[in-house]
Write a structure and sequence with these properties.
By secondary structure, the protein is of the alpha/beta class. Helix content is 41%, strand content 15%. The chain has a seven-stranded mixed β-sheet, with helices on both faces. InterPro entries: HTH_LacI, Lambda_DNA-bd_dom_sf, Peripla_BP/Lac1_sug-bd_dom, Peripla_BP_I.
Length: 403
């Protein structure tokens, strides 16, 4: 072993400790210069290895690092050169207007200035991962960090192997795929600073969409068009699907709608074709789907069969992905602000608070929902950050047809 071959006169370096501990050199540096920003299990592991190797940090370098910490400089007022220009937005401005809220800060943040964050997704071609990446990179740039995008695919085994391979090679991970199991995620969070997107995991910092604002605005629009019943088309079994249906069902019933449910179908255009066949038999006046792909498949199939959208049936999707505006007619969609999910995740990895920030209209609406007893069960979780949704109105919704 390298430890056994080292001469007694050799000076132990940061790189030696990092290699023996199986972590990045930057992580070892932070253990001795700013341990509060490192997972406590990692701190203990690194210090144990350093003690075994006889490593002693340079007090002068540690003092300089603490005095010149780029993280500390972030709280100072920006210099004039950092102010917003026509070509580059002011990086601090989007953070102040982000509509997400959490009960407390993440407990396992460790990413510091200059670190590398891995954004692990299932599929890079769905248009969703690019939105998350854009938001994450904006916030990471504030501290001189960078975000890399990694596609893990559909396999749970492959995803877990890839995540294991990242240990010691990155300073933090944003997990935006539902492939790994909960037990694996909880164990992984003890080894690597981690934030999970789109599903809550008990004990692990998570950022999830809160559908309430988008749903209540969609249903208010449907009520203005005199609709009285709604059919929800379910996607594959998942936390996101259950969250959307539960929210729709709760708010819909409180607003006097008759709520129906069909599915599940595949969360794809082909799944939408399949759902359209069932819808032609039941003939609802409104359909809300798990995602925009299902909505697009429904619109395409119904149109091909001579059913008019929105004259005969109104269609609303979820996610506001790239397909929604290009279908004929363009699809109204409940928008999931994926860029803000990415921003919130990076802020948690950086150890920053993300307080509840809403525009006045949404804040008033949320207060009214809470007074009616419409709550999100994740609100009370200390590890979950909720991100508000909205509605993007297009031409797929119209007046209820005459019976």
């Amino acid at each position: 072993m390298a430890e056994q071959q080292r001469k007694a006169t050799d000076r132990v370096r940061l790189a030696d400790v990092a290699d023996a501990a199986g972590v990045a050199i930057s992580t070892v540096s932070r253990v001795f210069s700013n341990p509060d920003r490192v997972n406590f299990q990692t701190v203990e592991q690194v210090r144990e290895v350093a003690e075994r190797l006889g490593y002693r940090p340079n007090p002068r370098k540690r003092h300089i690092a603490a005095a010149q910490s780029p993280m500390q400089s972030q709280v100072q007022s920006p210099a004039p050169a950092q102010l917003q220009t026509a070509s580059q937005p002011q990086l601090n401005q989007p953070i102040a207007s982000m509509p997400f809220h959490t009960s407390s800060a993440a407990q396992n943040h460790a990413t510091a200035s200059g670190g590398v964050i891995a954004l692990v997704v299932k599929d890079t071609t769905d248009g969703i991962s690019s939105q998350i990446l854009k938001g994450a990179q904006i916030t990471a740039m504030e501290s001189g960090s960078a975000v890399g995008l990694i596609e893990a695919g559909q396999s749970q085994q492959r995803t877990q192997q890839l995540l294991t391979h990242l240990i010691g090679k990155v300073d933090g991970v944003i997990l935006a795929t539902d492939s790994p199991g909960v037990d694996f995620i909880r164990d992984y969070a003890k080894r690597v600073p981690l934030v999970v997107l789109n599903r809550p995991v008990d004990g692990v910092p998570s950022v999830v969409p809160d559908p309430r604002i988008g749903v209540v605005r969609a249903l208010s629009m449907l009520r203005r068009y005199h609709h009285t019943a709604i059919t929800y088309v379910s996607g594959a079994t998942s936390w996101a699907n259950q969250s959307r249906w539960s929210c729709l069902h709760d708010i819909g019933q409180r607003m006097g709608f008759r709520m129906n449910h069909i599915g599940p179908v595949r969360p794809s255009v082909e799944g939408g074709y399949q759902a359209a066949l069932a819808l032609e038999n039941s003939k609802p006046t409104v359909v809300i789907t798990y995602n925009d792909l299902i909505a697009a498949g429904i619109v395409l199939r119904l149109t091909a069969d001579g059913v008019r959208v929105p004259e005969d049936i109104s269609v609303i999707g979820f996610d506001n992905t790239l397909i929604a505006p290009v279908v004929t007619p363009p699809i109204t969609s409940i928008r999931i602000p994926r860029d803000l999910l990415g921003q919130a995740a990076v802020r948690l990895l950086l150890g920053r608070e993300s307080g509840a920030v809403r525009n006045p209209a949404d804040a008033q609406l949320m207060d009214q929902l809470k007074e009616l007893g419409v709550r999100n069960e994740e609100e009370q979780s200390a590890n979950v950050t909720l991100v508000d949704t909205s509605i993007i109105v297009r031409r797929s919704v119209g007046e209820r047809r005459a019976e």
